[in-house]
Design a protein that fits this description.
There is one protein chain. With about 160 residues, the chain is an alpha+beta fold. The chain has one domain (about 35-159): 3-Layer(aba) Sandwich (Glutaredoxin), CATH 3.40.30. The protein is built from 6 helices and 9 strands, in the order ββαβααβαβαββββα. The two termini are about 25 Å apart. The relative contact order is 0.23.
């Protein structure tokens, strides 16, 4: 289990930059810039909850962008991310974790209950990582409605 105060697991994943170009997204590169990182894990591109969460980050980017870099991670392919990013004009990084190694490193992959049924999949989670590489705040089993407001509130305190 990964907790606040722990060192954030390092990763490099294929993905898209804010302009939609394919790139390698490595945590250490952002930490070097001295900004916090909002790392959020979501189940699937183009599904209602995930679209809402992504659009909330997009719409509030003016409140986040000076303090932090936003990276959305799902098991979807870079190709799927491209369509998602273009369709909703997303203005932050999207990373692809098809092997689920980063999801597992952040405890964002595992058993969850959906409609009373136990399944294995992405556990919607968000982390604020400080420039020193420590996890300053974590949310698990995120409810989308109002979540980005909570992230902004914490960024104001932590970054």
């Amino acid at each position: 289990m990964i907790n606040e105060g722990d060192k954030a697991p390092e990763f490099c994943l294929k993905g898209l930059d804010p302009e939609g170009n394919e790139t390698e997204i490595c945590l250490k590169d952002f930490l070097k810039e001295g900004k916090c990182v909002v790392l959020y894990f979501y189940p699937k591109d183009n599904t209602p909850g995930c679209t809402q969460e992504a659009c909330d980050f997009r719409d509030n980017f003016n409140k986040i962008g000076e303090k932090a870099v936003v990276i959305g991670v799902s098991p979807d392919s870079v190709e799927s991310h491209k369509k998602f990013k273009e369709k909703y004009n997303l203005n932050f990084y999207l990373a692809s974790d098809p092997d689920k190694k980063v999801l597992q490193a952040y405890d964002a992959w595992g058993e969850k209950k959906m409609y009373g049924k136990t399944t294995v999949g992405v556990i919607r989670s968000t982390f604020i990582i400080k420039p020193d590489g420590t996890i300053a705040k974590k949310w698990r089993n995120v409810r989308v409605k109002g979540h980005v407001d909570k992230v902004i509130e914490q960024l104001d305190k932590l970054c």
